[in-house]
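Section: protein folds

Sequence with per-residue C-alpha cells
===
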Amino acid sequence: MKTISDLGDLRGKRVLVRSDLNVPLDGATITDDGRIRASLPTLRRLTEAGARVLVTAHLGRPKGEPDPAFSLAPVAARLSELLGGPVAFATDTVGPEAQRVAAELSDGQIAVLENVRFNAGETSKDDAERGAFADQLAALADMFVSDGFGVVHRKQASVYDVATRLPAAVGDLVQAEVEVLRRLTESPERPYVVVLGGSKVSDKLGVIDNLIEKADSLLIGGGMVFTFLAAQGHGVGSSLLEADQIDVARGYIERAAAAGVDLLLPTDVVVAPAFAADAPATVVAADAIPDDQMGLDIGPDSAAVFAEYVRGAKTVFWNGPMGVFEFEAFAGGTRAVAEALTRTDGLSVVGGGDSAAAVRQLGFADDQFGHISTGGGASLEYLEGKTLPGLAVLEEQSR
C-alpha cells in the first residue's frame, strides 16, 4: 500500500482523510476520546506538510439522513482542543457548506465534515448509489488518505469507493495497525497467548478458528466461557449461554488438545442472582454454579492463573473483557488481565472495542500497553484471515 510519503508534495493540496471518530457520547459530552487522540499523528503530519485537510468520519448509526444526536460537532470541538488550534466544521458532508469550507481552507488548516452516514449513499449496497456519493466526496479533494482502521472492513463510499477515484494512501494509524496484526498472524514471538472474552462465542468463532493452532495458549473468559463450560457437561445456572454453539465449543476444546495448545477455562467464577451493580457477589467453582445464579466474572484464582500466563508471554492479543467490568464487583478478572498486560516483556495488544474501553475505565493509560487497536471488528476480521475491503482497495490502487 502507498503511504503518505508516496503522495509527494502536499502543500496546497486538499487531502480527504477518512478517520474513525466514532466515540461514545453522553448527550454532547465525549466519554472516551481515545479514537480522536489516535487520529492526531496523521492529521498533524498532513497539516505540517501544508495540506488542506478535510476529515470525513461517522458517528453512531443514523439512518442515512441527518440526526442531531449523531452530529460530529462535539468531535470537531474536541479535535480543536487537542490540536491546539482552530478546526472548521461543515454542517453537511458534500453539500454547499462542505464545498464552501473546502474552498476556504488555507495551507495547514483542517476541517471536519458532518457525519458521513447522514448520507444514504455511504452505506448503500447498490454500487451505483454508493459510487455517486463517492464522486461527490472525491470532488472536494485532490488526494485521499485512509486512516480509519475501525471501518476498513466495510465496503462503504468513504472507505472503499473514494480510494478508486483519487490518488490514495494509507495513513499512519492504519499502517501501524496492520503492522501489529501481521506480527500476530505471521511471526509472533513465543510464548504467544491469546485472551478472548466478551459475551458470545459466536462473535469470536473466526478468530478462534484461525488462531487456535497458531497460539501457544488460548485463555477464555467473559460470557462466552459458559458455552465452553456447558460443552464440558457442567451446569451454568442462569448464565449467558449459546446452546447452539455448545458442539462448536466442544470441537475447539478437542482441536486445542490435539494441537498441544493450552485452552484454559476458569476454574472459579464470580456469580450473582441478578445482572446488577449491587447484586451480592459470590465465588464458586466453575463446575458448581448454582441453578439460580449467573456468572458475571472469572474468579480470583482463575484471574491469577490468567495473569501468570499473560506476564510470561512474549506476544499477547486480548479481545473482550473477562466479566461485567462496568460493575466494580465483577471487574476483578478484567483488571487482573489488564494489569498483567502492562507487565508483559513483549508485544501486548489490546484488541479494540470493549477491551479498550475497559482498560481506560479501569484507570490504565494507553501507553502502558504495546498497542491498543482502534478497531475491534476490523482487528477480529483481520485475525480471522478475511479480506478487508478498505485495505484491499489500497493494495489494488498501489499496483
